[in-house]
Design a protein that fits this description.
Strand order of the largest sheet: 3-2-1-4-5-6
Largest sheet: 6 strands, parallel
Radius of gyration: 19 Å
Oligomer: single chain
Strand content: 15-25%
């Protein structure tokens, strides 16, 4: 079919890569040219590396063979690469692909804070995509765009809705993050079961820096971070899939609970306006029950399933507190993923 874009999936044997493959099956815009991973996976059937348990792939996808990473082949054959590589490998690999003219959309954190690399959640900051024009590789057609850390992704849309409607001064967030956030096979069971691990390396720093960048602006060749104070406290809990986050926010205005609920549930972004094929119909799902959201019930919230962040709201004095339950979202405009 003419006009379709040829893409590569990097790290196709990992959880993130397999979510990319899931979202790209039968996609109206993209054709998957190849599934790429390390040399030890060369020639392996995709089915034999499968870690995803909640999706049934097409047989032709299951029978596809994984290729060893070949940057020359990718650059020759693909306009786009979706990267599910671990951060240590992602940094140099993505840089080289961009240098060779490939548009790289990355789940890794290696380039998130680079001076001209946008961290994009499509409903929140699509205008920041203009930053790629200032990347050194842009003239040759290559550039890098990243998504956010998983815990930042789960709350950035409601924060954007509140910032636009009521102004936002402070965000205090405590996270209760599933073991899947550490990637497959996750946290060792003897560490996780019956336990709360009150430390996730670099997670709090990521949230505090990324949220300000995403809620800010890009102009004159630089990012201006939003003037919002963010304080994060992150913990790993014995939940398989679905992060829960508790927030207290300070706003410039003082909306009622009903007004805040309406602002969140009515929030829409550019993906919804454009009718993009994998965009959630309602990116924020508001639950009124006192005991929701819960990961076991709400991790698949939204339409399509799993592509909306579920929230419960309550009011406390002049601040507003609420809980969020979500899965991370991969790059082809809204999906879920397993690692941060």
């Amino acid at each position: 079919m003419s006009g379709r874009v040829s893409v590569a999936v990097l790290g196709a044997t990992g959880m993130i890569g397999q979510r990319f493959v899931q979202m790209l099956e039968d996609h109206p815009y993209f054709d998957v040219e190849g599934l790429y991973a390390s040399e030890r996976s060369e020639g392996r059937r995709f089915a034999d590396a499968l870690r995803v348990r909640d999706h049934t792939y097409k047989q032709e996808t299951l029978d596809a063979r994984v290729s060893a990473m070949d940057l020359g082949r990718i650059a020759r054959n693909c306009r786009v690469a979706f990267s599910g590589l671990p951060s240590g490998l992602a940094g140099p690999t993505e840089t080289e692909l961009a240098r060779r003219g490939v548009a790289v959309f990355s789940n890794a954190g290696s380039h998130r804070m680079d001076p001209h690399v946008p961290i994009v959640v499509p409903e929140v900051n699509p205008g920041q995509l203009s930053a790629v024009e200032d990347q050194e590789t842009y003239g040759g057609g290559g550039y890098i765009v990243t998504n956010a850390n998983c815990a930042s992704t789960g709350i950035i849309m409601p924060l954007k809705a509140m910032l636009d409607r009521y102004g936002l001064r402070q965000v205090f967030v405590s996270t209760y993050q599933a073991v899947s956030g550490a990637g497959y096979p996750g946290v060792a069971s003897l560490d996780a079961l019956g336990n709360v691990i009150p430390y996730i390396e670099n997670e709090e720093e990521k949230m505090e820096s990324e949220i300000g960048k995403m809620l800010g602006t890009y102009s004159g060749g630089r990012f201006e971070h939003a003037g919002v104070e963010v304080v994060a406290n992150c913990a790993r809990v014995p939940v398989v899939d679905g992060h829960t986050e508790s927030l207290v926010v300070g706003t410039e205005a003082s909306p009622s609970v009903g007004e805040l609920s309406q602002a969140l549930s009515s929030f829409r972004g550019e993906p919804q306006e454009l009718g993009l094929p994998s965009a959630p119909e309602a990116p924020i799902v508001v639950r009124a029950e006192a005991d929701r959201p819960q990961a076991v019930y709400d991790v698949m919230a939204g339409t399509p399933p799993g592509r909306g962040a579920c929230h419960h709201r309550r009011q406390a004095q002049e601040s507003h507190g609420y809980y969020s339950s979500s899965r991370s979202r991969t790059t082809p405009s809204a999906g879920r993923a397993g690692a941060c």
